[in-house]
# Entry
Amino acid sequence: MLNIIQLLPDSIANQIAAGEVVQRPASVVKELLENSVDAQARSVQVIIREAGKTLIQVIDDGTGMSETDARMCFERHATSKIRTSDDLFRIRTMGFRGEAMASIGAVAQVEMRTRRSTEELGTLIRLEGSELKTQESISCLPGTNILVKNLFFNVPARRNFLKSNSVEMRHILDEFQRVALANPEVAFSLYHNDSEVYNLASGKLSRRIVDLFGKPYREQLAFCEEETPYVKVRGYIGKPEFARKTRGEQFFFVNSRFIKHNYLHHAVVGAYEGTIADGTHPFYVLFIDIDPSHIDINIHPTKTEIKFDDERSVYAIVMAAVRKAVGIYNLSPSLDFDSNVNFLPVGSPGKRSAEPDEGISRSGPAGGPRPVEPSWSMPEPTRTERSGANRPVPDAPLPRRQSTQNWQALFTGFESPEPAPVKPELPVFDETGTAPASVTMGSRANNLAAHPVSGEAIQSMLQVHNRYILSTVKSGLMVIDQRGAYERILYDQLHASLTRRDGASQQLLFPKTVTVSPADFGMALELQHELTSLGFVFEEFGPNVFIIRGVPALSVEENEEELFAGLLAQLREDTGRLKLERAEVLARSLARRTASRHLTRLTTAEMKALVDQLFASSNPGYTPGGEPITTVLALDKIAGLFGA
# Structure
C-alpha cells in the first residue's frame, strides 16, 4: 500500500498559516502597524484604497532592515526576538517583524522598500503569493515602506467572503485606534481613497484620546492610577453621566498590547455601581503593566485574549483603581447621612483640584496635588439640606400613627388610574406614509374575540412601574413587556417604510449639526439611501460632520443629534453582530434605540391600543432580537407561589 502522508509545499502551508493571521484587511493593517512601532518609528503613515482590498500601504521612519533581514522576514517562523523557549515568556513588544510577513506575502502582492539610516542604499523586495519576483538594491528613505496589493488575489473564496467597504473600513479603523492609543508618543496618519481620516500628532495619552474621539471627550475624562508590587493600572475613565447604551469605546492594554477581557470589564462596570444606569457602558482606556511571566498571551491566534496567573488579584486592583478615580473627584453621588438610604439624591460634582494634564482630571502620585480628602467631622447641614423637596425634617416631631382605613394606598402603582388623556407616544402611519395629527392606535385586533398568543380574551389591564402591563385572562395572568411591545411595533413600521421607501419625515425648523467618528461617517454615507427612506434628511458639512434637516416622524420628541449619532453607534454594534440584510439591521437598530423612550405612564385606553397593535404585528411573542414580549402565569403556578 502506498504511503499517503506527505509534507505540504511551502506555498500551501503559508496559505494555511495565513488563514489564522490574515482574516481581513484589518489584520494586515494591525500587523504592519505593530511592526512599525517595534522598529522604533516616530511617525507612521497608513494609506488605504477600497477598504484595503486593493491597497494597504504603511510607511514608517523606523530603523529599517538590512538586505538579508528584508529577505528573511518573509520566511516562515522568522523572528528577530526569540532565541530560546524562555524568550516566549518575556515578550513585551508587539509584531515580530517577520511573524506575519510570510502569511501576508502568501495571499497578496507585496512590495517592500527598506533602508537603515547607517547605510547608503536600501533594498527592494517584490513577492506574489510567497514567490519572490524581485530583490535589488535601490535608493530610498530610511525606514520601511510596505505596499500590500490585491489581498486574497490567489484565494478567491476568501476574497468573496469580505464584507462591504464600510464594514471592512470600520475594522481597519478599530485596529488603527488601538495601536494609536497604545502609542501616543508616535505620530500616526490615515488616508482612505485620498481623503485624510486621521492626522494624529505625538503627545500625551489625553490628547491622543481627544484627537481620536473628538473634543467632547475632553470634558469627561478623569485620570486613573493604582500601583502595587504585582501590577500597575493607569489610564483614563469617563464620567458616569457620559456612559452610553452601546459598547465599543472600552480599551484594555496589557503591557501596551490591546486585549479583550470580559472579566476585567465586569470589574470596571462594578466600580461604577450606583452611578450609571443599567445597560449603559462607561468609556475607559486602561493600561495594565505586569511582569510577562504572570500572563499567557498565546491562547488565541490574534493574541487579543490572555490569561493571568492570578485573575482575582488583577480584578480587585482594577476595580479599586476605577472606584477611587470615580470617587476622588466627587463623580459619584455624595453620601447624605440624614437621608433615607433607599432614596439617595444624586449629588452634583464638587470642585476639583488643578488639572495638570491638558485640562483633564487627574489623581495618583504623578498627577500633582490631590484634592483634600473630606474629614469625618462634617458640618451640620441646614434644615433645607436635610429635608429635600418632600422629605420631613429629621428633628421634627414624629407623626401620629396613621389610620388603617387607607390600606389601599399600599397598592398604589399596581392600579391603573385614569389621568387626563395624553397623546400616545407611538405614531401610526396611514396608507400614504404620513402620520396623522391625532393618533389612534387601532388595529384589526379590535375585531378579534381572542388574541392569537393567549387564545383567550383579555378582560382587564393595569400597569406596573411604567414597564409591564398585566392583563387577566381565563387561564391566569398575562405579563407584557412594554418596551418589547413598542420595539416589535416600531420594527414592523420601520421595516415597512424601508421596503416601500416612504418613511415620514419631520422637517426641523432649525437644522442641527452633528459630529461623528470617521467610521460612523463612512457608514452613514453608505447607508444614506436607507436612512432617507426612514425619514432622516441630512447632508455632509465637512469632515465627519453632518447637517440634520429632518428626522423620522416617530422620533420628533428626541434630541436630533443624539438620535442620529446614537443610531449610528447602535448600527455599528449590530452590523458586526448580526448577519442580516441592511434594511433589517437598520430597522432593528432604530426600533431598539427608540423603544426605551416609551417607558411612560399609560392610560387604560392607551394600554389597550398598544396591546391590540402588538397582537396585530408580525410576531407578537418576540422582539426582532428574539427576546420574549409576553408570558402567561397559569392559575396553578400562581397558586403554587402560596403553597396551595
